[in-house]
Specification:
This protein has 136 residues and is mainly beta. It has one helix and ten strands; from the N terminus they run E-E-E-E-E-E-H-E-E-E-E. The strands form two sheets. Strands 1, 2, 3, 6, 7, 8, 9 and 10 form an eight-stranded antiparallel sheet that branches.
């Protein structure tokens, strides 16, 4: 049995802003509503894909400097934007696909989330959007 592993060092672009240097965790979940399509005479339930209900969660170190986290994201709250994430910083390919959510919605932005003696970071959740994958 073969296995493949990689050292996680993804690229993270939110609304064309490269926030890789501020990102320390990211998860893109692809999900489709399950619509039951079971018909009379069936012996088991059958489902088909419904609407996409995708979600992107990201944890970013907070910075208020020009061109950093707060400045780049504050204008996105309550709007739809695009995000792209790749497993590594290498070129997009079949072994390093670029995953994109187009028109994903940012509902809220914690403007301060501080704890004594810790680096300030915020957790964001982008909801919905059209999911696509590029391999070239």
């Amino acid at each position: 049995m073969s296995t493949s592993t990689y050292l996680s060092n993804p690229t993270c672009t939110i609304s064309s802003y490269d926030l890789q240097d501020q990102c320390h965790a990211a998860t893109l979940t692809v999900k489709y509503d399950a619509l039951e399509s079971t018909a009379f005479g069936s012996t088991s339930r059958v489902f088909t894909s419904g609407l996409g209900d995708h979600e992107f969660t990201v944890e970013l170190f907070m910075s208020y400097a020009a061109s950093e986290t707060y400045v780049q994201l504050s204008a996105l709250v309550g709007t739809a934007t695009n995000i792209t994430i790749k497993p590594t910083s290498a070129a997009t390919s079949a072994t390093n696909p670029a995953f994109t959510l187009t028109g994903t919605y940012l509902e809220s932005l914690p403007v301060v989330d501080a704890k004594l003696g810790e680096l300030s970071s915020v957790s964001l959740t982008f909801k919905g959007g059209v999911y696509s994958v590029a391999t070239a």
